[in-house]
Design brief:
Helices cover 49% and strands 9% of the residues. The strands form 2 sheets. It has an 8-stranded parallel sheet. It has a two-stranded antiparallel ribbon with strand order 5-7. It is of the alpha/beta class and 378 residues long. Helix 11 links the parallel strand 9 and strand 10. It folds into 2 domains: 318 residues, Alpha-Beta Barrel (TIM Barrel); 48 residues, no CATH class. This is Xylose isomerase.
Amino acid sequence: MEDQERFVPQPEDRFTFGLWTVGNRGRDPFGDAVRPTIAPTTIVRELSRLGAYGVTLHDNDLVPIDATPAERDRIVREFKAALDDHHLAVPMVTVNLFYDPVFKDGALTSAAPAVRRFAVDKAKRAMDLGHELGATIFVLWGGREGAEVDAAKDPRDALRWYRESLNELTDHIIRNGYPMRIALEPKPNEPRSDIYLPTVGSMLAFIQTLDHAERVGVNPEVAHAKMAGLNPVHEVAQAIDQQKLFHIDLNDQRIARFDQDLRFGSDDLKGTFYLVKLLEDSGYDGPRHFDAHPYRTEDIEGVWQFARGSMRSYLAYREKVRRFHQDGEIQAVLARIQKLHSEGPAIDGEASLNWWRERGYAYEELDQLVTELLLGMR
């Protein structure tokens, strides 16, 4: 029982979910919804009961795109009351620039100035909503920022429009005095044939061209990296190295599949362990945000099992990280490897070259020990 109590989520663990995650109704390209809509205020209540820290949202997850100003104010007022009643925070908001048909050829990279204007203004209103709810992170996923027909749009123009739009959005933050930063979310695949700025590395390079690069970072997602066969741990490490990990989306994914958004840690146990280890060892103090969906097979009760399982899994992996650092045999092997690397001879001739050529690094032994740790053998 004592062991199980370590895996009970608490607000200080900073676990968050999007309204669109637990609220996902199971619709996919080949089948309609299998669950009823869950009201945002109900989601707030249930996540609080499960021990979450906060909830996040796209603008239209909460306020319909066609809501009148009076309807918008009523919805927001009721939502804020639920947040207060259940002691939940809203650390991040984002904007939906991908669903409406107006964005079919891009939002911030649309060749049409009228569409770009509409997209930027919509994003500004989402920022205003986020500030009203207390959010300090604004995530921007460029889901429609891409192309199928390269003859139709010069990618240099698209990047210039992207840059101009982001500069205007950071100006909006600064002009209004919002304590808010922007986190760009890369995704190599879907829904366009080719996506602009598809990886963490390409986003980081682009950020350096912005007027206020210090206000813009990245929001890596596990599934997005794995869809393209990339290593999420390395993607996140690059963001940390550049001090640009402003937010993170946690889920799971099988390599080269469609965007599965599986429950965190449910598929790749070793990869998830190393990701949690990286976050914990680096001192990342932002939200642990679960951007995943319950299986389409589930009813409403299954939705809450999904949310509970996501948080418990993170806590279990975090416990494995603690045991990794305390395991005497693992640490002895690491020390032996590090000593070999640091105390081996300088390369100044054939004899020293051969010394390095003949050495084994004991990585098989280390990897097996980590595997045994994850399998509960240690």
